[in-house]
Amino acid sequence: MLDILYSDFAGQPAWMWLAFLAFVALLLAFDLGVLNRDDKVLSVADSFKLSAVYFAIAIAFGGAIWWGMDTRPDGTSPALDYFTGYFIEKSLSIDNVFVIALIFRYFAVPPAYQYRALVWGILAAVVLRGIMIAAGAGIVQSYGWVLYIFAAFLILTGIRMLVVSDDHAEFKENWLVRFLRRHMRITDELHGSRFLVRQPDKATGKALIHATPLLLALIVINVADIVFAVDSVPAILAITTDTFIVYTANIMAILGLRALYFALAAMIDRFHYLKYALALVLVFIGGKIFWGHLIGKVDPALALVVTVAIIAGGIVFSLWKTRDRASTTATSSRE
Predict the structure, then answer these.
(1) What integer is the mean pLDDT of 209-232?
(2) With b meaning 16 or more CB within 10 Å and e meaning fewer, what string describes 34-70?
């Protein structure tokens, strides 16, 4: 049994993977079973408080990596790679909030049921992100030149974000929603926080299991998460191909995003300029790969500082530029 626990799995002992997955399962069970046992609307204040807890957990986990994992033979630090990857993934995932909010609005999901759907969505993200990261890391490790394709993709994506307007004004029914409606029995209305219900079929009258619009929203959100991962996974693989670091940074960022959702959803219009900071991060990370090949390797600590500075600058600038909106909102709420 001990041999299995200490056997190598994707570059790290199997027990480290099992311990991390057990830790994630414990957080989800606490989140869903204790914090959100009763369907309720999470206030902005509670959202920030819970987000602070998840942020502290993510930082503490990075500290554990710093203490428990040795510097690699090439001189790189797993902890620095984790923190850089975490902040990149955390920032890029903020854009998910815009789409998630529109999806909930389209399916008329009340705030009281949104958090439960988001937490269950993590379960799928844990598996789907794992598959994508394992595949991406395996390809890069086997064919090193693929990393330069990732780098070019990140630079082009960043430039596109800088010059092309991406207006998430409205979510429109796409091919996925139409496919699900054609191939699933779906109720016309929500049934509380339930994803599946048994009710009479319209054609036969026989009691059959039907999906609710909440399940439909959950499926669409997870597909959207996969689409966003097409950007975020190459971004962190450009930092490191250590599968354990890439996966843990990804999942820790996703866990915290669910807690932060309600605060961000209430302040979406105040983060308009953050997109440009994220674009610069993508260009920087992609450019770092080519710089390292042509001139010399960029110090990982410098990469972390630059990444955090760009993101923090984007957040501060966004909040400063939209300060009048905050005043208007506060005045309206008092009236």
Answers:
(1) 87
(2) ebbeeeeebeeeebeebbeebbeebeebbeebeeebe
β-pairing, 8-9 vs 207-211, is unpaired
Separation of alpha carbons 333 and 331, rounded Å: 5
3-state secondary structure of 281: helix
Residues 6+ apart with CB under 8 A from 273: 314, 317, 318, 321
Q: SS3 of 186, please?
A: strand
Q: What sections of the chain are H helices per DSSP?
A: 2-5, 14-30, 44-68, 78-106, 111-142, 146-163, 175-183, 213-237, 243-266, 274-294, 300-321, 323-334
Q: Which of 246, 92, 82, 63 is nearest to 157 (CA)?
A: 92
- Of 126, 115, 129, 128, the closest CA to residue 261 belongs to 115
Q: Is the pLDDT of residue 328 over 60?
A: no
Average pLDDT over residues 278-303: 87
Segment 92-134, tens digit of pLDDT:
877 777 778 888 888 888 888 887 788 788 788 888 888 888 8
Structure tokens at 203: 């054609």
Please answer whether residues 216 and 107 qualify as being in contact, where contact means their C-beta atoms are separated by less than 8 angstroms: yes
Residue 55: name the closest of 270, 304, 254 by CA.
254
**Which pLDDT band holds residue 43 (cuts at 50, 70, 90)?**
confident
* Torsion sign, CA atoms 23, 244, 70, 16: positive
Which three-class secondary structure state does DSSP give residue 12? strand
pLDDT, tens digit, 9 for 90 and up, residues 274-283: 888 888 999 9
Rounded CA-CA distance 128/224 in Å is 12
> Which value, in Å, is the radius of gyration of the alpha carbons in the chain?
21
Average pLDDT on 261-282 reads 79
Share of the chain above pLDDT 70, in %: 89
In the block, tokens 């597909």 appear at 223
> Quick check: 296 and 73 in contact, CB under 8 A?
no
